[in-house]
Design a protein that fits this description.
The chain has helices at 8-23, 36-49, 67-78, 89-95, 102-124, 136-141, 177-186, 191-194, 214-233, 286-299; strands at 28-32, 53-59, 82-87, 129-131, 167-169, 242-246, 251-256, 259-272, 280-281, 303-308. By secondary structure, the chain is an alpha/beta fold. The strands form two sheets. The protein has a five-stranded parallel beta sheet, with helices on both faces. It is globular, with a radius of gyration of 20 Å. The structure holds xanthosine-5'-monophosphate. Residues 138, 141, 151, 153-155, 198, 200-202, 242, 276, 313, 317-319 line the site of xanthosine-5'-monophosphate.
């Protein structure tokens, strides 16, 4: 924890107090992304302000396979949190038409998120507070707190200035990733949710290089689901902090059903790290890579080539954009 030394229980109590005092009786909106950061924030805020909390889950079309349904089931079901699920895939794709620059992609997505929140907030009436799952590495890498900017995280650097919320609440902004998980456990979040790998706010959009299209995103979603399934089947998910597929927008010649084809490449990336600031690639077995390669190239139409990313961080970042 940055500049604080206290137990997790005490931290949660203090976070609740601070949410209550900053919200000052006003309703609170939470930007639920599906990741552990915003989930932890939502559960803290539910504890702090009860039914004054409303969560908005924006289905951008950049979620992993089945993710929207899983998030809705957990938060509406077990936690009885007011949840608004906004289906916004078409809207995001329209905004991103022709956008290929990674930073512009991130900024466009961040802005559109905020626009969606503002619209939903207006529908709800007066909502002064927006709760966000910003964590300390987001601040460091967005150039806040005296750090040099690496990339604009949509939680921080991509936030447009004409935001209409009066107050931004960031209760876990001083926590590192592992502390967020610890905090989730202390709050009673299911272990499977707490240990789920981090997923960037802009989602698959930063793993699908070049212009975003629905067919490419669907391909990536399927390839990613297969890779994750095989890692989990091999029991490796407990020791690998992040593993996912990327569609680098590279097409190449191959052979399908005896005829020439020209299809997409998928990259597999699996990384171990303690702090997400530096990381190493996992020496996956060739057998596992082989299984994943065969499955993706036969089960996902449009992908004919698989490569494995062996670059540590630095010099590469975890995400490709
Ligand atoms: P990089 O790619 O910078 O990622 O090495 C470090 C960790 O942060 C995650 N990440 C994000 N998380 N919003 C987030 O909440 C974002 O825009 C974002 N970009 C990257 C990444 O998945 C990795 O765990």
């Amino acid at each position: 924890m940055v500049n604080i030394n206290m137990s997790m229980e005490a931290f949660i109590e203090q976070a609740c107090e601070s949410i209550r005092s900053e919200a000052a009786g006003r309703p609170v909106l939470c930007a639920l992304s599906g990741g552990v950061d915003s989930a932890v924030c939502a559960v803290i805020a539910k504890r702090a302000v009860g039914d004054r909390l409303t969560c908005i889950f924006v289905d951008t079309g950049f979620m992993r396979k089945g993710e929207g349904d899983q998030v809705a089931a957990l938060f509406q079901g077990a936690y009885e949190i007011n949840l608004i699920r906004v289906e916004a895939e078409g809207r995001f794709l329209a905004k991103l038409k022709g956008v290929t620059d990674p930073e512009l992609k991130r900024k466009t997505i961040g802005e559109e998120f905020v626009r969606v929140f503002e619209e939903e907030a207006k529908k709800l009436g007066a909502v002064g507070c927006l709760l966000q799952g910003t964590i300390y590495p987001d601040i460091m890498e967005s150039g806040g707190d005296g750090y040099k900017q690496v990339k604009a995280h949509h939680n921080v650097g991509g936030m447009p200035l004409n935001i209409e919320f009066e107050t931004i609440l960031e209760p876990i902004r001083l926590l590192y990733k592992e502390e967020v998980r610890e905090c989730g456990r202390a709050l009673g979040l299911p272990e499977a949710y707490v240990t789920r790998q981090p997923f960037p706010g802009p989602g698959l959009a930063v793993r699908c290089l070049g212009e975003l299209t629905k067919p490419k995103l669907d391909m990536l979603r399927e390839a990613d689901a297969i890779f994750r399934e095989e890692i989990e089947r091999a029991g490796l998910h407990k020791e690998i902090q992040q593993y996912f597929a990327i569609l680098p927008n590279i097409q190449s010649v191959g052979i399908r059903n005896g005829a020439r084809c020209y299809e997409e490449t998928a990259v597999l990336r699996a990384m171990t790290t303690t702090d997400f600031v530096t990381a190493d690639y996992v020496r996956l077995s060739y057998d596992l890579i082989d299984t994943v390669t065969r499955r993706i190239t036969t089960e996902v139409p449009g992908i004919n080539r698989i490569v494995y990313d062996t670059t540590p961080k630095p010099p590469a970042t975890m995400e490709w954009e």
